[in-house]
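Thread amino acids onto this structure.
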């Protein structure tokens, strides 16, 4: 997205407020929706390498849409009124448990990975409170753990204890995580894989250490849970990460990623039903109907449940194995091609469809792990050049010695486009190196760094954001991201919050 000038919010009155227009024919309304989509990145076709998961199977989108439509008016809140939602959820959870669970595994269908993770953290907090009397809960997680864990920590009053990962492999340091675990730890986290670099943490060691301290261990398999087992079935070597490991007590897996269901479909699994009980919320002390919510949601759209159920049933075991084989083939071809581009370095050892690579400013071979300041500018210029050529590669800023990079999510739909991507990447890299490096204005950085994020007003934030984006060409993000990268974390987060607030402002 390209930052827009900060907009001053005018006073909204009964006279100036926007009202609904006169009713229009359905065809006109749908035509307007289709026109609005034209400015978005494409979700099909294999050229958007983040946010979307495309199986490339003919008719799958239509099946999901039809299944959703069949259940669009059904409320998943009360399964005694709509018993079919319990059947659909049980079928989905049973399939996930067969793939990732152990005898006795129970689970819940959720709206996505963030909700699955939030529920796992709540369960761990409440379990530790009830069983061990923990009143000041903490969770130990590697620095590569998904931001959703920090969101859950903020929502639920759990202190995150962040442990650096191995600087060469980007995998969690099991020994350091064990050392960070204490009597207040309610949860230890591992990723299979981590989103940023696509590497699988040493789950077996992390889970065993957690079990030795009677601490729960959650495996974030939102990305890999529906891919890694099928890669193994397709003949690839995949380290164990499932509940077959005794210390693993919960797992999250997104069906809207490599399960290829539409967005809004995930599952969180628990070792047993007694553990899952701590996830639930029940309340009867009010004059309305008795409330029992397995998830954060009350009212639940059963259409999302139905479309996920339909997609899983349609693709089947052999279908997912073949799709996993295609993802592996695309990954192999991409990694081989990246190795031929001067100055390109793949980060870690990608194992599950995600690839992150960085580039150096000179174009020669990398030696060691140090990355110069100029690489951030080059990485961002390269992202912009690729977007101009019709590809979306996700920029990731540097963090604690981990270099800035471009992140790609490979799906079966990308298989036919890998060669074209590599060809354009070579041209884009040459073009990016020819551009003037972007540097953050030192004076502005010093000025911004002196601002207090807690007291920063909208006008001050607007001034910093406007200056960061001044002079940038349409569609180019390098200038503003370099500026943000140079700022302290809390200030960076505040400015990002203000920016998003400006986008969603009427």
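Threaded sequence (506 positions):
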């Amino acid at each position: 997205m390209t930052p827009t000038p900060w907009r001053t919010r005018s006073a909204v009155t009964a006279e100036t407020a926007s009202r609904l227009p006169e009713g229009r024919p359905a065809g006109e309304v749908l035509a307007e929706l289709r026109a609005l989509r034209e400015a978005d990145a494409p979700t099909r076709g294999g050229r958007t390498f983040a946010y979307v998961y495309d199986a490339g199977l003919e008719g799958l989108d239509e099946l999901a849409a039809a299944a959703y439509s069949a259940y669009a008016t059904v409320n998943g809140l009360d399964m005694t009124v709509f018993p079919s939602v319990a059947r659909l959820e049980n079928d989905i959870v049973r399939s996930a448990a067969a793939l990732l669970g152990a005898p006795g595994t129970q689970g819940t269908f959720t709206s996505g990975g963030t909700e699955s993770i939030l529920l796992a953290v709540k369960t761990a907090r409440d379990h530790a409170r009830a069983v061990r009397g923990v009143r000041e809960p903490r969770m130990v997680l590697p620095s590569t753990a998904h931001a959703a864990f920090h969101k859950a920590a903020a929502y639920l009053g759990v202190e995150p204890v962040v442990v650096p990962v191995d600087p060469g492999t980007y995998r969690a340091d099991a020994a350091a995580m064990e050392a960070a675990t204490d009597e207040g730890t309610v949860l230890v986290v591992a990723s299979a894989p981590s989103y940023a670099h696509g590497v699988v943490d040493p789950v077996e060691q992390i889970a065993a250490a957690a079990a030795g301290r009677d601490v729960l261990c959650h495996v974030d398999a939102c990305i890999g849970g529906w891919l890694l087992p099928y890669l193994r079935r397709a003949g690839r070597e995949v380290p164990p990460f499932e509940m077959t490991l005794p210390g693993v007590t919960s797992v999250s897996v997104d069906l809207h990623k490599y399960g290829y269901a539409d967005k809004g479909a995930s599952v969180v699994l628990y070792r047993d039903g007694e553990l899952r009980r701590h996830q639930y919320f029940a309340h009867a002390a009010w004059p309305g109907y008795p409330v029992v919510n397995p998830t954060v949601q009350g009212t639940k759209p059963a259409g999302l449940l139905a479309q996920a159920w339909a997609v899983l049933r349609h693709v089947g075991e052999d279908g997912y194995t073949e799709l996993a084989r295609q993802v592996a083939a695309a990954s192999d071809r991409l990694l081989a091609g990246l190795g031929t581009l001067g100055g390109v370095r793949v980060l870690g050892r990608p194992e599950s469809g995600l690839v992150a690579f960085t580039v150096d400013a000179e174009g020669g071979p990398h030696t060691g792990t140090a990355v110069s300041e100029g690489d951030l500018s080059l990485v961002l210029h390269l992202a912009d050049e690729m977007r101009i050529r019709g590809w979306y590669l996700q920029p990731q800023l540097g963090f604690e010695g981990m270099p800035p990079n471009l992140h790609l999510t490979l799906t079966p739909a990308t298989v036919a486009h890998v060669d074209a991507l590599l060809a354009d990447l070579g041209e884009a890299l040459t073009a990016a190196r020819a551009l003037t490096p972007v540097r953050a204005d030192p004076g502005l950085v010093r000025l911004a760094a002196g601002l207090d994020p807690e007291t920063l007003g909208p006008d001050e934030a607007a001034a910093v954001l406007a200056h960061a984006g001044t002079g940038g060409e349409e569609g180019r993000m390098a200038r503003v991201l370099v500026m943000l990268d140079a700022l302290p974390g809390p200030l960076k987060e505040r400015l990002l919050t203000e920016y998003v607030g400006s986008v969603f402002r009427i």
